[in-house]
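Fold this sequence, please.
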Amino acid sequence: MATADGAIAGTTVDHLTETYRAHYRSLLGLAALLLDDTASCEDVVQEAFIRVHSARKRVRDPEKTLAYLRQTVVNLSRSALRRRILGLKLLSKPMPDMASAEEGAYDQLERRDLIKAMKNLQRRQREVLVLRYFADMTEAQVAETLGISLGSVKAYGSRGIAALRVAMEKTT
């Protein structure tokens, strides 16, 4: 669609309105194949039209408006599913129980003893244990991070845990 000066104009509001009237239901059907509830499908299709309306100057060929809308519906449906999956993962984690004041004090003393014991370890043992158990890395990731072999990670980890066990037994 060219303007009087030969420049290419974007999709017009009238064309977008006609596209809405003609293709709303089919886009809703597309969303329904990707999502499982009607409200989410309607939200996705409405959001798709809002986004295309905002970007209508970039959709230079009015014939491509429907394709652009379809792609937007698919992308928004993917995002909705990702958010839903993330929400389910967060909900599936049990909420921690509140510790009593006594438990909290005991845990704090134990943590202080552990930190003191960690400081007394050899540097490599401490690095391996911190990366392995506090940063939740695999042995291979620890080896790569520290630039040492996998066998060294296992040896430092084993010796470090043994040293911690001895130190923690002395405090109890």
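Confidence is low (pLDDT under 50) at residues 1-8. The chain is about 75% helix and 0% strand.
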